[in-house]
Structure formats: structure tokens, C-alpha cells
Amino acid sequence: MDEFEARRILQTASDDEPVTIPATILRKLDLQDIPEGAGLQVGIVSDQVHKLDWNGTIYHRAGKLIGEADHTWTRKYWYSPIGLEQYLDLVRRAVEARQKTCDDVEVTAQDDDGAYIAFRFEISTTETNLGAAYTAVRKISDQVEEAAQEAANEVGKRIAEIAARLSGWGTDSLDSLVDAVENATSAQAKGRSLEELCSRLFETVPGMAVTQRILTETEEIDISIINGSDDPRLRREGPVILAECKNWSGKCGKNEFVIFRSKLENRSQRSTLGFLISWNGFAGTVTKEMLRGSREEPLIVPISGSELRQAVRIGDFSKVLLSAWDAAVAL
Q1: Residue 218 phi, psi dihedral angles, 5° rounding
Q2: 69 near 25, Cβ under 8 Å?
Q3: How far apart are CA 310 and CA 330, in angstroms?
Q4: I need a surface site. Which of 43, 86, 185, 267 has the fewest CB within 10 A?
Q5: Where do the structural domains in the chain lie, given as residue ranges?
Q6: What is the phi/psi pair of residue 237, to 5°?
Q7: Helices marked H in 204-272
């Protein structure tokens, strides 16, 4: 899409039906290009699916550009270490505090129907260029959510510490954990060993901190990692990295890859990188799915059990991790 096509599409926008425009085009567009009362969302449309860069809409209202951040979440798919109600309450408090000091934000909607919680707030800007307005709105939106995200990280770290203590964390060497995963006679024993092995390996990467570990009933291990890496490849990624470990007896396939990608996309654009770890490797359908989505975010890096064993053997998980990242990007 170029700016001429974007202007044509913007003329069809309305308050109820905003259009989707790529972020790369916004700098070439101004307030006059969007009709009064109309709205736009920033992202792309691929295979009739809207993939948004930001959960919100930019509106033209009363001769100004206004951003409305939309925090509408379902409890079923909420993965943060703190509850959805507590998280959005912190966001609301931050909005109210900023409104008193800067008067550039305002709560516009709050609703809880049991399954979903909706919370929206408007962000004012004096910018008339759509690109500059989007940058200003995103900056304020991110600042408002900082305290809630920090609280979630702190809670996650505390839960991880307690879980580690209860599980006898750290009493086995990494070599022993590899043997335990390989030779375990039950899924639970294999899962616990793989959980500790993966988490402890990620902790060895400079700048990374594991904040949450969940072993599910389906024998999947979800790991949430704060990305503070100084490596230029990892530094460009989002602040939250997810890892999902499969301790199955078979190979991980396309369906698991697609489900994991949806988890990454459901993180308010804070997670652009995920590591899908399968102890027994991957089916060929995973590579095909990676090629199909190679132009899109997020990036999913597959890591096999053999690579974990190599990392323990050479004592350098960072090297193995970045090599896997390079291979995923090169597809």
C-alpha cells in the first residue's frame, strides 16, 4: 500500500468501522486525509486477518487527532502473573494520575461482563501528521501501562522464586537435568526436569530474567522472560519473551506452532519473540509454517532437545540461542 491507496481507503472510514493502515505509510499522511469522525487502526491485513501494531484507534475529532487505547481482554486467555482486574485497575489509576498532572488522557469506557473486561482511554495530541500523532499516542499509552507491567513482572518473579524453592530448585546440575528429561519414566517427572533445565538455561543469558513458569495439565511448560539483553539481535525484540516447552514423546507440529504464535500476538505488542522448544524435535510442517509467516511478526525460534544438550555440553546457551535465532531469521 502507498500513500495514494491509503488516502482512498481513509475516505471510506467511519467511527464504527475504522480502516487499517500500515505504520510505514503514516508519515506521508496528515489530519486532512482522514474524514472528521473517522478512525484508523495501525497494522496490516493479511489473509483477511487484521494484525494490529497497537490495540487502539486514531480518530479525527473536532479538528484534532485523538488516540483511544483499547484494553479489552478475556479472562480465559489472560496470562499475566497478576489478575486481569488488578492489572487494569493499575492502568486506570495511572490514567487518572496522568489526567491530573498533564490533562492529556481521559477514561472513556469501563465494563466487566464476567467473561471480558473492557477498559478504554483517550489520548490527546497536538500533532497533525498521522505518523507523529501515532508516535506520541503510543508513547503515552506505553507510559501509562508501565507501572502495571512492572507489578506483573515483580509478582511473576516472586511466584517463580517460591516455585523454585518448593521444587528443590538448583540441587541438580544441568547435566543431571538433561539425563532426567531423557530417562524419566513419567510425563510429570520429565516435565519438571525440562521446566528447570529450560528456565535455568535462559537465566544464563545476560540480561534475561525468568519471571513466570507454568506447567500445564497438557504437559506444556510456559516460560515468561524479561528481555534486557544488550545483544543487537535480541535488543530489537519486545520486552517480554515467551518460551513454550513440549515434553512429548513425538515431534512438535504445525498446530502447536500456530497456537504458540497466537499466544505471542495476545501480549499487547510486548512480545515479538518466542522460543518453541520440543525435546524430540519438529515435524517438517513447522518449517513450512515458518516460511509462510516469515514476513510477519512475531518471530518464533524452534529449539530442539539436541540443541539443549549441546548448550549444556559446551556451557554456552547464549551461543546456541543466537544460532537458532539466526537460522529462524534466515528462512
Answers
A1: -90, 15
A2: no
A3: 21
A4: 185
A5: 3-154, 167-330
A6: -80, 170
A7: 232-235, 254-265
Q: What is the pLDDT of residue 291?
A: 79
End-to-end CA distance of the chain: 24
Contact 221, 202 (CB under 8 A): no
Q: Alpha carbon of 61 to those of 31, 32, 102, 257, 299: distances in Å?
A: 10, 11, 20, 41, 36
Task: State the pTM of this model.
Answer: 0.65
CATH class of segment(s) 167-330: alpha beta
Q: Is 307 helix (H, G, I), strand (E, B) or coil?
A: helix
Amino acid identity for residue 236 in this structure:
R
Contacts 24+ apart (CB under 8 A), 107-116: 108/68, 112/85, 115/74, 115/75, 115/76, 116/72, 116/73, 116/74, 116/75
**Average pLDDT of every residue of the chain:** 86
pLDDT tens, position by position, 146-170: 999 889 888 888 887 787 777 667 7
Q: Residue 35 belongs to what H/E stretch?
A: none
Q: Which residues contact 76 (CB under 8 A, 6 or more apart)?
A: 115
- Retrieve residue 131's grid coordinates: 505518523
DSSP one-letter code for 129: B
Q: What angle do CA 194, 235, 105 make, to 5 degrees?
A: 105
- Each residue's pLDDT tens digit, 23-62: 899 999 999 999 999 999 998 876 666 677 888 999 999 9
